[in-house]
Design goal:
about 110 residues; mainly alpha; two-stranded antiparallel ribbon; 2 strands; about 35% helix; globular; disordered C terminus
Length: about 110
């Protein structure tokens, strides 16, 4: 995985993420509206942040082949569907082949 320096969220997320999240939480839909978190501003910001590479395998991503992925699966963490710090670019192979839940097990955490 790449270490990413995350800038401020793009304008569209600053202005609309809360409204989109509230609407999705109130819905019975299983998945959030992809077109919202794949908005051109979001993809452009993620491309700049990731140097046009997959977050997981670092494969260079051609324009249009990238997928916007949720690090924490929104089926389990519905409130993070449009959260800027939960969005990454991934290649199709990594996005489709990843485990559905990335929460760290308690046994895997360090004890300070």
């Amino acid at each position: 995985m790449r270490l990413l320096s995350r800038q401020a969220p793009p304008r569209v997320l600053r202005e609309r993420a809360q409204k989109w999240t509230e609407a999705w939480l109130a819905s019975a839909d299983e998945r959030p509206d992809t077109s919202k978190y794949r908005h051109a501003e979001v993809v452009a910001a993620l491309r700049g942040m990731s140097a046009d590479k997959c977050f997981y395998c670092e494969k260079p991503l051609e324009e249009g082949e990238e997928q916007v992925d949720h690090y924490r699966d929104v089926a389990l963490h519905r409130g993070l569907a449009y959260a800027w710090n939960n969005l990454y670019l991934a290649c199709k192979e990594c996005n489709v082949g990843k485990p559905s839940d990335r929460d760290l097990p308690v046994a895997g955490c360090l004890d300070p």
